[in-house]
Amino acid sequence: MRNFWPVAIGLLTLAACQSSSPPPTDALVARGKQIFFNETFNGNGRTCGTCHPAENNFTLDPAFIATLPNDNPLFVAEFNPALKENFENPRLMREFGLILENLDGFDDLENKFVMRGIPHTLGLRTSIASPQGPRTGWSGDGAPGDGSLRSFAIGAVIQHFTKTLNRVPDVDFRLPTDEELDALEAFQLSLGRQEDLTLPLPLKGTVPKRGQEIFLDNSLGKCNICHANAGATAALVPGQSLGNANFNTGVENLPDQPARLTGEPVPFDDGFGIPGDSTFNTPPLIEAADSGPFFHNNAVETIEGAVAFYNGEAFNNSSAGRFLASLDPNGVGIKLDATQIVAVAAFLRVLNALENIRQSIELLEACALQDFFERTKSMELLKHAIEETDDSIVVLSGAGLHPDAVASLKKARSYTENATGSLFSRRKFSHRAISEQEKARQQLVE
After folding, report:
1. What is the mean pLDDT of the chain?
2. Taking a C-beta distance cutoff of 8 angstroms, is the pair 144, 165 a contact?
3. What 3-state DSSP class applies to 243?
4. Which residues contact residue 234 at a Cβ distance below 8 angstroms, ignoring those fewer than 6 apart?
5. Under CATH, what is the fold of the domain 206-338?
6. Residue, of 20 and 321, whose pLDDT is higher
7. Bigger pLDDT: 399 or 146?
8. How many of the other CB atoms lie within 10 Å of CB of 330?
9. The pTM is what?
10. pLDDT beyond 50 at 100
11. Domains of the chain by residue range
């Protein structure tokens, strides 16, 4: 087995230098979408959408994986003998949504790997920039070479699309062309939010409002220090943005990590760099509530559990936790009680629902503008709107939040369903769904 990674880094650097990343156009985004969901690059059958399905917020979790047929390319290690060993761990994939990554090279596949969850690709335009260069993946170095989204795509093909563990270009896969890399980048940057929020929001609801106060209080929740405006930008000093930053938050030191309880091999994940420095980059929080499990190792299932992590010993004994304590006059890192944890999680749930509603309205408005005969495009937009509406319902009702808004969202979903089944009243039902979405938003925020 030869180590292909140095060769890969050379290819990645060359590819990045060959493009000036032209401004995206609708045609380029559409081309990128087609590649993302359909192009296998002459590999093992996987596409980018295999691990980043649009219908599951561009990520994977065990519940979604359980709905897939056994011949889905995600499970290629289970039916391709050449990939049976050291390509994936099918048990950990199915039970915990974990994917095998060889971030430190391919020279020792049996021992040199990490098991990581699938980060969603929403809001990338707002979340990966840093003064040191792009931060992709869970540790900020998900892309070899220059770290760009273009390099990320090439690295993904080499890691996940190969027919055999030899990973030989033009034998086990083909590498994306410059045109394909431009299109993939444009499509990924088009997904989700195109700008960050400005907090605080005029929220309704006693518990979410209190959660926002705690989140923004740099002497209590201290969340906004590393997740400014609930995004992926760190501002350790007010007014001085670090962009997307890496921190050692102690996640690897959590006891009883679910994957390790199985007895399956799960090496220590050393984070950024080769060798790693135990740091991981900051994900945006606005999309968090409906894209769990949480952290790079999918160790925590709920948004409440993810908030509670920062109240525990693993975080407060980490370098990030100690740094926060050093900023506190009383030397305290993060110390929240149970009701405060629930309040912060409620705030994040409401932010997520507001983003779902924003996207649903955008999709419904686009559907209402479609020509009478554009049925295929209309059905695609309506299907996506239903998925976003379902997410908002689950996110809010999962914590008993805003039942009035949930009722409006259910009406919006019903109207959207009616639109999918009506040739002549599609526009009318889309407008009615928009009205209910707007009503739900008004019940969440002033």
Report:
1. 93
2. no
3. strand
4. 225, 226, 227, 228, 241, 242, 243, 244, 245, 247, 282
5. Cytochrome Bc1 Complex; Chain D, domain 2 (1.10.760)
6. 321
7. 399
8. 7
9. 0.94
10. yes
11. 5-189, 206-338, 351-444
